[in-house]
Design a protein that fits this description.
mainly alpha; 8 helices; 70% helix; 0% strand
Length: 172
């Protein structure tokens, strides 16, 4: 089960919610004002663009990126083509780390149950990489980003929780 068509809209929304939840959880773990948040969101967008090239052989990641593109275009008034994208409440995930972690757990469990292990593992690894990328995008504290901490203890803690949540019921 590797194509978008292999998942119901509800299942696909579960998978697509994971990267959104990860970005929200990492940013929320140690908020850094508008400039820092901008840098972190920008890093996430760059990670999506990079994955579109470097991970395109994984049909799960490729389909995920297409759906995410449609979901974020919805903010500009364009209707998302994939109904599953419309089901993701970005603001709810951003406002509550527990919801974000629950979204990661649900995605991890679904991937463990439904996706081929090598593809699911590559997707999980990319999602954890995404969390690290967002966390490293902006220094926390300091003065105008100088002398700050690159990845805070709170960010490290949420990344560890994300990694555990994504593990789902897979055997490690």
């Amino acid at each position: 089960m590797t194509e978008r068509a292999d998942y119901t809209d509800a299942e696909w929304a579960t998978v697509v919610a994971a990267p959104v939840a990860i970005i929200a959880a990492v940013i929320g773990a140690s908020p850094n004002g508008p400039v820092g948040i901008s840098q972190e969101v920008g890093a996430a967008v760059e990670a999506f663009q990079k994955a579109a090239t470097t991970r395109r052989d994984n049909p799960l990641i490729a389909a995920l990126l297409v759906t995410l593109k449609g979901r974020f275009e919805a903010f500009t008034g364009k209707q998302p083509e994939d109904a599953a994208g419309a089901e993701i409440d970005i603001f709810a995930l951003a406002s509550d780390p527990a919801k974000a972690l629950d979204a990661c757990r649900a995605a991890g469990a679904l991937l463990a149950r439904k996706a081929p292990p090598p593809l699911a593992e590559e997707l999980r690894a990319w999602l954890v990489e995404l969390a690290h990328t967002v966390a490293r995008a902006a220094s926390e504290g300091g003065f105008f980003g100088i002398g700050g901490e690159q990845v805070t203890r709170k960010e490290q803690a949420i990344i560890a929780e994300i990694e555990q949540a994504l593990a789902g019921s897979q055997t490690v």
